[in-house]
Write a structure and sequence with these properties.
This is Integrase catalytic domain-containing protein. It comes from Entomortierella parvispora. GO terms for molecular function: nucleic acid binding. This protein is an all-alpha fold and 128 residues long. It has one domain. The protein is built from four helices and no strands. The two termini are 44 Å apart. The relative contact order is 0.07.
Length: 128
């Protein structure tokens, strides 16, 4: 998100963080169906344009608010579980289990493997 607002020199990113935080917390999450701000507080943030409209005078009771908040959190958890199940289904769509036997030849990606002979040599120029 920050990339869309930073200037060409990338020097003003720190000044944009408060606006970015507000935009992120007010955006509806695709997995939960709710904004992070709403899930934390049970209400939507007041935008500057909303200050022109008189506030709603009906304030829910504490019990009604807590009940609605609990229901919202359960719905969000259910939505997250459905999203996770869908992601798992998509990830496993073409995956297959490999059955290896002792003696089978396999390919090894050694980018993160350290070979003992390489690790005890004192200089890179002396490595094979």
């Amino acid at each position: 998100m920050l990339r869309a607002f930073v200037d060409n020199k990338q020097s003003n990113w720190d000044q944009l963080l408060p606006s970015l935080e507000f935009a992120y917390n007010n955006a509806v999450n695709a997995s939960t169906g709710y904004s992070p701000f709403f899930l934390n507080t049970g209400q939507h943030p007041r935008l500057p344009s909303a200050l022109l409209i008189p506030p709603n005078s009906s304030v829910p009771t504490v019990d009604a608010f807590l009940s609605e908040q609990a229901t919202t959190l359960i719905l969000a958890q259910d939505a997250l579980q459905r999203a996770q199940d869908h992601q798992e289904e998509q990830a496993n769509k073409r995956r297959r289990d490999h059955k290896f036997k002792v003696g089978d030849q396999v390919l090894l990606r050694a980018t993160n493997a350290t070979i003992l002979a390489d690790s005890i040599r004192p200089a890179d120029k002396l490595r094979p």
